[in-house]
Design goal:
mainly beta, 13-stranded mixed beta sheet, five-stranded antiparallel beta sheet, globular
Length: 423
């Protein structure tokens, strides 16, 4: 992807960055004031403690790839797979700008630093669904585009109903026009019966990373891999999943993404909860944090895996001859309840939600020397981040960090986060 239209987009990219720099939204006035219940300052977690990856056995993951014959059989039955561009050309819904979002939705935005771009999802379209992770074409390719398009992927989960299993889906968001974001849904699925059918990924999505042509999805069941060249069209609009009378159904979504692989946890490997891409390493790497309850006395482990440099394994983790991926770096932090993790250079950014529905969360920046969080309000509280905090994704080409809190999807420059931490 690195050669697709890069030179013809350089001028447009410079203009877009200039546009973003001068279009900070007037969101601060709409944000909810910090209440007295948020006045306590979170305990400083201090610096990161490096772990010996040999001593942890490298937090191994075992790779399992779906046979090509299985995927081809499903594609033969459902029709020729389509790519991201075809999905973006078929968007049928729109995100709302802040002026059209409710006060309750806007209250989920950070107070300090403020978002420079924000959008909300339609309540009817997301009723019963829980917002999860976010990744972008800034993860997929270092020029920030997929082909000629700027794209955001947003993961959502449904707990199920009337004895039916839960489901997981991804919104493909066309972000070419920052003033008008459109999207459509794709169901996350797992092939069954040798590719003769599929079932939904019945688990909560906690993390997304789009790297090259692969989408890595973390859930309570493990780490799944999807190929964005293998998007299938659903032909029946119903709340069923899989082969139905008259064709194929995807729980109301227009598209289906069948898994092409997975990674199972080796002995001693924590379940990756929050994940993100780090382009500051060579090769690029996947960083992860485990899920530790906010009130736990146990530290949280952070670690990273290298991506494969083999073109034949684009988007997959680097593995040994036995198909095992092992961590190249690991740390412990005293920060618990982490919902989003980001690593860039020597710094780790850890997104901790509030302890109650009425409070805001905290964004910590940690390295081996110490920790820092933004202070806001007259009492210098650290509760300045989104209340229902979510994953973090850094769009390196624009310098923006993207996140999602409740029904709000938003972005702000990483430089503004660092400036707020320096004050």
């Amino acid at each position: 992807m690195k050669s697709r239209g890069r030179h013809r987009r350089q001028k447009r990219g410079r203009a877009l960055r200039a546009f973003l720099a001068g279009t900070a939204l007037a969101l601060t006035a709409a944000a909810t004031m910090i209440s007295a219940s948020q006045a306590s300052v979170s305990e400083d977690p201090g610096g990161l403690k490096a772990l010996d990856t040999a001593g942890t056995s490298g937090f191994p993951l075992q790779e399992h790839l779906v046979p090509r014959a299985t995927l081809d059989r499903l594609a033969s039955a459902m029709g020729r797979p389509v790519g991201v561009r075809s999905v973006l050309a078929d968007t049928d819904r729109s995100l709302r700008t802040p002026a059209d979002c409710t006060t309750a939705d806007r209250s989920a935005l950070p107070v300090e630093p403020a978002a420079t771009r924000a959008y909300c999802w339609d309540s009817a379209d997301t009723r019963g669904w829980r917002a999860g992770a976010v990744t972008t074409s800034g993860d997929a390719d270092d020029d920030g585009h997929w082909g000629d398009d700027r794209v955001i992927l947003s993961g959502w989960s449904h707990p199920g109903r009337a004895g039916r299993p839960g489901q997981a889906r991804v919104a493909f968001v066309n972000a070419d026009d920052p003033d008008h974001l459109t999207y459509t849904w794709a169901l996350l699925a797992v092939p069954t019966d040798g590719g003769r059918n599929y079932t939904g990924l019945a688990s909560t999505v906690s993390g997304l990373v789009w790297y090259q042509d692969k989408l890595l999805v973390t859930t309570a069941k493990g780490l799944y891999v999807y190929d964005l060249r293998r998007v299938q069209r659903a032909s029946v609009d119903s709340d069923r999943v899989g082969r139905v009378r008259g064709g194929w159904s995807a729980y109301g979504a227009r598209y289906v993404l069948p898994a092409v692989g997975s990674y199972t946890l080796g002995r001693g490997t924590p379940r990756p909860a929050a994940v993100s891409l780090d382009r500051s390493t060579a090769p690029d790497s996947l960083v992860a944090s485990e899920s530790v309850p906010a009130n736990s006395d146990r530290p949280t482990r952070l670690w990273r895996y290298r991506f494969s440099s083999n073109p034949a394994r684009a988007g997959l983790l680097a593995t040994d001859a036995e198909g095992r991926a092992v961590a190249s770096e690991a740390y412990e932090t005293k920060t618990t309840g982490i919902a989003g993790v980001l690593s860039y250079g020597s710094d780790w950014y850890l997104d901790r939600p509030s302890d109650s529905r009425d409070d805001r969360g905290t964004l910590w920046r940690q390295n081996r020397q110490g920790a820092k969080a933004t202070e806001c309000g007259s009492d210098d509280s650290h509760h300045c981040w989104g209340g229902r905090a979510g994953s973090l994704s850094f769009w390196e080409e624009t310098g923006e960090v993207w996140s999602q809190s409740g029904r709000m999807l938003y972005a702000l420059p990483l430089s503004s986060i660092d400036r707020s931490l320096a004050e």
